[in-house]
Amino acid sequence: MSGKPRLTYLNGRGRMEPVRWLLAAAGVEFEENFLETREQYEKLIKDGVLMFQQVPLVEIDGMKMVQTRAILSYIAGKYNLYGKDLKERALIDMYVEGITDLMQMILMFPFSPPETKEKNIDSIKERATNRYFPVFEKVLKQHGQDFLVGNKFSWADVQLIEAILAVEEKIPAVLSGFPQLQAFKKRMSNMPTIKKFLQPGSPRKPPPDECYVETVLKIFKK
User: Fold this and answer.
1) I need a labelling partner for 124 at 20 to 30 A (CA). Which of 101, 110, 175, 199 fits?
2) Which domains does the chain have, with CATH numbers?
3) Which GO terms describe its molecular function (predicted)?
């Protein structure tokens, strides 16, 4: 064993991508095991590795962790990215949950029928610009700090930069009315660990394509 966290998922973003982001932002190297067939997935279930018969699976500190939220909470706590007290942790949790709601729309987009894609893009834009991004624009403006919580880099900042870049892939000008978020994006993208993760050849996965969608359906749909 190398001691590095081992991530088991498909070779694509999905629900594992925020885990990759968080580990990378913390400066933690990890190994990946990619599922390519339904047989591999069924073997994990048969072997009792997946508590709820679901991936992501992260093997870390002698544990076989499932459930994305639990995995992310553990990593954030382990690497001091989860605030200094309960109040800060509550804020981080609220921000993360909000971002997760927005990212759920991004997550499901590749699986939508072609005839609904334009409508779904409009929905993502509407939610991002009217519900989610205004919250973070206001937070950053009101406390005048570089980060969302306590002027210290946290899990919430990692989730937000991931979401900003994911939405921009579909709506390039989405930040045009959000100067605080534009500055935030620049700051985060220049942090050494995140800058490294954004370079070609990093473990960051590209936007889902048809091949990824087909692999997901082949492995998980009976």
Assistant:
1) 199
2) 6-79+198-211 (3.40.30.10), 86-191 (1.20.1050.10)
3) glutathione transferase activity
